[in-house]
Structures are given as structure tokens and as C-alpha cells.
Amino acid sequence: MSELTEMVETPADVPPGLARRVIDSDLFYSFRRSPLTMVAALVTVILVLAALLAPWIAPHDPFDPAKISIMDSLYPPVWSDGGQSGFLLGTDNQGRDVFSTILYGMRISLAVGFASVVLALFIGVTLGLIAGYVGGAVDSIIMRVADVQLTFPAILTALIIDGVARGIAGPRAYEDIVFWVLVLSIGLSFWVQYARTVRGSVLVEANKEYVLAARLIGLRPATIMFRHVLPNVLGPVLVIATINLALAIITEATLSFLGVGIPPTQPSLGTLIRIGDDFLFSGEWWITIFPGATLALLALAVNLLGDWLRDALNPKLR
Amino acid sequence: MSVEALSRPRPAHDGTDAPLVEIVGLGRTFDLSKRWLNRVLEGSGKVTLTAVDGVDMSIRRGETYALVGESGSGKSTIAKMVVGLLPPSAGSVRIDGVDIWKELGGAEQRQIRRRIQMIFQDPFASLNPRWRVGSIIEEPIKAFDLITDKRERENRVGELLSLVGLDPRDAGKFPHEFSGGQRQRIAIARALSSSPEFIVCDEPTSALDVSVQAQVLNLLRDLQERLGLTYLFISHNLAVVRHVANRVGVLYLGRLVEEAPARTLFSDPQHPYTKMLLDSVPDIDMTGRERTPIAGEIPNPVNPPPGCHFHPRCPLRFEPCDKVRPPLKEYGQSRAACHALEEGRVSAHRD
Fold first, then answer.
1. pTM confidence score
2. What is the separation of C-alpha A43 from the centre of its chain, rounded to a whole number of angstroms?
3. Of A142, A181, B165, B347, whose CB is crowded by the most CB atoms within 10 A?
4. Which helix (H) or strand (E) is B40 found in, with range?
């Protein structure tokens, strides 16, 4: 009964606030219904916060040569024999605190991941919109280029771009631009999926009558595309972007592991795993296992979020 | 100019009786051929579909002209060419003397576009689901720079919403919060927002419940009286057409076969196809009598019958019907295209 009066008393003409709309939404409902998703979201938030706040959280600054002592090298984690209390997860061969390098490394991994997803999103969505809305020869050309792009594995594309950039910039300057080279190579290998998805949705949306109504009043195609069509095709794009974020982080790690990515002076998670790999057989397992576990956890959590988003936004599965 | 455009007195019937909309020899073909490479490899030729074939008609100010016909007869194609969404392959569309397909891009075309609006068939697809109702309705106002002041524009949106029987406060809601009939009212409000004189209604009630259909039709008629609107009303529902139309044009496979004042058409149809259509409509007077179903099906428009398109289904078919296209001729108040009528083989008027 009290619920009923509450409903009646809610004034109908006041648009509900943003927080209220979020809490009432179907998306939030399905989020609350899935414990796994909530755990994944929690892990993601903790990891991202830890990466962002690394300079304040990390007990050591692994990039300051003055504070690193080679005497501290290869300590095992605190709970093992010979562990030092200052170094929670032990130290690597140069005496850097593994916990601190993981925090800093995650910053770089996440930054590369986000930036390359944004780049892929931008290229893919723009080309997909154009292909779907303009159609005809333009559509054919864009989609054939996409097909060709798809025949190259992401790693191969990245290796080619990386090699070319290295050749042009020279080894010293290369270290300064390596971040952007990685973003470019990963972004370029992931745009096809967005373009295809957006084009497909645009083909459906562009024939709907609300687009005709917009054409009727003489709006320019670009205006119609961005103001009318784009907001209606963004749902699936968001899902791909989330799943691709995990993929981009892994690709960056792979490249760094192969030695074509971020250099060891400013290591990303992949670089850390590569450094640690050299010591795996001599018993210093912590140098590679901890960064590896962090990478796995991060990728898993983001992927689970992406999967949930895909299911939650798919009306057919409701 | 913004406010002037709104408050300018509507051109009333100026006595000269010049039609507002003049359609001459309008035609549209669609290319259905396979792609060039496939054509070369498979040796197949070009395939074209003639959706609209030499349609002449004129719509007077303040009247409701209804176009009826079966699916595939070209009704919607004509509607799209008249509002400027689809370029015609032949002929011209003149609104108030201005050819809307000749004045491309100019200021005059913008002026003409403001005066033409359209109400669509499916109220669930015609409103952008991500936009609030207020933004949907004010978009044409913004696009034509009719009201530059934001507050004034909001007031105008509220006025339009009340005009179509909704609450001005509904402007803050999203389309999915409304029923089909309410959405169609929103679509009507959007069409009215640019103060048009001529509105093309493309089957505006066919997606609605019967009870709501009547409400929307009455609203349209009401608005016509209050704002002096001219309608081109596309429908396949003869009951609806009888309710709203002043004049009716009957389409068959892209050609106008008969045109008459609504009363005349329903009481005294000339063309055998029109007769067939009307005989198929259930009527309260004919209780107990068998209805005459429409014989045969509409032929494939890619490969229409030669001569009069209707001859394979026509009970009056004779010598020239499968060779010569019959011209549209006047019979009393009606115009019809039929060889049998032309040669007086059937008496034009019922006695």
C-alpha cells in the first residue's frame, strides 16, 4: 500500500535525475543480478585505480636510478625465505620492487589499451558510417580495404608498423615515440570490427522513417549520420570496445614480450614478463609470475564486463 | 524572416483555383539488374521495374486527395517523389508553380521544402528512439531557422503538442513512453512544426488499432480545417479513404486508372478495376449477399502486361486492350483510362 502512495505522489512532470535513471535502468538491474559481473567490475576498478594512483601507492619509485640499489636485486617475496620486509613481491635483477613496477607497468598497459581502442573506434565508426550511409562504390572500396586488413593478423600488422617506425626514427628517437607506435599499430589492426558492425547497423537504421523525416527537411548527410544514426548504432560498438580493450592490452603485452614494444627502462606488464622470463629457470619465479597474473586478472575482468554488456544489450537474449 | 514565416496569412482560395500541387507525366523506374560483372558472366540483360508510369494529377488547395491501390501499385513511390525524397525518372512535380526537382539547392528549394511535410506509416520507426519528443518536434523549426529564441521555440513545441491533443509537458519524454496513437500524434506535431501547407500522409493509420485510427483521422481533418492544410493521402484502406477524401485517384501498376470526386467514385465507379475494388469491400447494406472477391492477382511489375495493364483480369477485355495503352478521358465528373468506356461498350453511368 505504501508503495502505491509513493508511486502516486511522484510528480510526473519532473524528469528523474541521472542517478535515479541509472538505478532504474534495465542495465543496472541485470548488473545487480550477476555476481560474477559485480566481482569483475570491482577487480577492474581496483586495478585501474591502483594504476592511476601508482605514484602515491607504490612503496618505491622503480624509474628513479638513484633509489634503486643493485644490492637489493633478486629478493624473493616477503613470505619466502630471504624475503625483505620492504619488498612485498620481491625484486627483479636490477633491484626494482616488483610490486611497484607492476603498478607502473599497468599504467602503461592500460594507457596503450585505451588509446588504441579509441583510435580503432574513431577510424572504424567513421568509415562504417560512411560506408553504410553513402553505399555504392564508396562502400565497396572501404569494405574491401577492411577485408584485406582482416587477412593480416593483428600482431603482424603491429610488427610491420613497428619495424617501419623503428627504421624511420632511429633507435634513440624511437624510445620517445614507441608509445604512439604501439597505439597506432594496435588501433589499425582492430578498426575493421567496428566498421563492419557500424555499417551493418547503419544499413538497418538508414531506411527507418525517422531518417527519412530528417532528409525531408533538407539536413545534410553528415548531420543526419552523426545526430540521428550514430546514437542508434552505438550499443553494439560499446560492447566490442570493452572486449577489445582486453584484447588490446594483451596485444601490447605480446608485442612487448617479443621485444618490439615498450623498452625495459619504462616497462609495461609485457616487458616485465619478458624480463622475468629469463630468470624463470634459475628459480626466481616471482619476477614473471606476478606481472603475468596481474595481466591475466586485468584481461579476464575486462572481458567478463564486455561479455555481460553484450548479453545485457542484446534484446534477443532477454 | 523567422516570425514572418509563421504568422504570414495562409494563401486562401484565391478564386483562380490554381492547384497547389501539379504532377505531370511523373515516372520512376528502378534498376533491379545484377551487378555489371554478373551480367557479363551470366549474359543476363538489364532488369528495370517501372514503379510509376506517366501519372498526371493535380491537388487543389485545402482538399484531401487520396491515392488508393494494391501493394506495389506505386503509391509510396509517388509520395516520396512528391515530398522530394526520391528523384523522379520522368515528369515533374510543381508546388505552387515551382518545380521541386529543378530548383535544387537554392533558397527557393528550402522555402518549398518547408511548405511540404510528411507523416509516415509506422509511428514506431518514424521517431528517433534516442531523442526526446521536444527535440524531435523542434528539429524542423531549427533546420529552417524559423524561431531562433530557445524559450520561444519551447513554447511553440508546447503549442504544437496541445494542438495534437497531447500535454505540453510530454516534450521531456522519450518516444517509447507513448502508445502507437500518441506517437502518431507526435509525428503529426513534428510535421506541423515547420508550418507547412501541404502534408503527404503515407498510410498514417495502417499501423494503428481501429479505435485509434478514427481518432487520428479526425485529428487530421480538424487540423485541415483550422490550418487550411492540403493533404495527399496514401492508403489501401477504402473505408479510411471514404472517410477523409475529397477526391480519389486509383492506381494500378504505377498508372492512374481512374480519378473522381470521392462521392462519385464510391457511388458510380467507371473503371472495371475500381468496380472490382469496391465490390470487394464488405458493406452493411449487402448483408447476406456474397461479396465479389477480387479476381486474380496484381501481375509482376517487372514484366507488366502490354497495353492496358489490367486486361488479363478485366471482364470487359476486347481487341485493343492488350496492345494499346488507354488514355485518361473524362466521363462526367470522373476521369478514367479504359478502352471499353471509350468505345461506349459499357454505359459510363449507372442509371
1. 0.79
2. 15
3. A181
4. helix B36-42
Enter the C-alpha cell of residue B187: 509525428
Candidates B8, B22, B86, B84; CA nearest to B56 is B22
Q: Indicate the residue of B127, B130, B140 with minimum beta-carbon distance to A217.
A: B140
Distance (Å) from the alpha carbon of B185 to chain A's nearest alpha carbon: 15
> Which of 202-261 (B) contact A at CB < 8 A?
none
Residue type (1 letter), B239? A
Q: ∠ CA(B73), CA(B79), CA(B81), 5° rounding?
A: 105
pLDDT reading at A145 higher than 70: yes
> How many other C-beta atoms can be found within 10 angstroms of the C-beta atom of residue A243?
19
Cell numbers for A135: 553505399
Residue B193 in contact with partner chain A when CB distance is under 8 A: no
3-state secondary structure of B50: strand
**Tens digits of per-residue pLDDT, A151-169?**
888 788 888 888 888 888 8
Can you state the angle between helices B210-227 and B180-192, rounded to 10 degrees?
20
Chain A residues lying within 8 Å of B109, measured CB to CB: 218
Assign 3-class secondary structure to chain A.
CHHHHHHHHCCCCCCCCHHHHHHHCHHHHHHHCCHHHHHHHHHHHHHHHHHHCHHHHCCCCCCCHHHCCHHHCCCCCCCCCCCCCCCCCCECCCCCEHHHHHHHHHHHHHHHHHHHHHHHHHHHHHHHHHHHHHCHHHHHHHHHHHHHHHHCCHHHHHHHHHHHHHHHHHHHHHHHHHHHHHHHHHHHHHHHHHHHHHHHHHHHHCCCHHHHHHHHCCCCHHHHHHHHHHHHHHHHHHHHHHHHHHHHHHHHHHHHHHCCCCCCCCCCHHHHHHHHHCCHHHCCCHHHHHHHHHHHHHHHHHHHHHHHHHHHHCHHHC
Residues in contact with A215: Cβ distance below 8 Å, sequence separation at least 6, in sequence order = A224, B85
A91 or A293, greater pLDDT:
A293
C-alpha A194/C-alpha A198 separation (Å) is 6
Inter-chain contacts counted by CB atoms under 8 A, chains A and B:
51
**Distance in angstroms (rounded) separating the CA atoms of residues B266 and B278:** 7
pLDDT digits (tens, 9 = 90+) for B57-74: 999 999 999 999 888 888
CA B16 to CA B34: how far, in whole Å?
A: 50
Q: How far is B323 from chain A (nearest CA, A)?
A: 38
Query: Strand runs (DSSP E) across chain B, as ranges?
Result: 21-31, 48-59, 64-68, 90-95, 98-99, 116-119, 198-202, 230-235, 247-252, 255-261, 328-331, 334-337
Cβ separation B83–A216 shorter than 8 A: yes
Confidence of residue B5 (pLDDT cuts 50, 70, 90): very low
Give tens-digit pLDDT for A40-81. 999 999 999 998 988 888 887 877 777 777 777 777 777 777
Residue closest to A91 by CA, chosen among A68, A108, A109: A68
Q: How far is B211 from chain A (nearest CA, A)?
A: 24
Q: What φ, ψ does residue B324 adopt, rounded to 5°?
A: -115, 135
Q: Which of A216, A220, A227, A232 to mutate to test the interface with B (most CBs of B within 10 A)?
A: A216
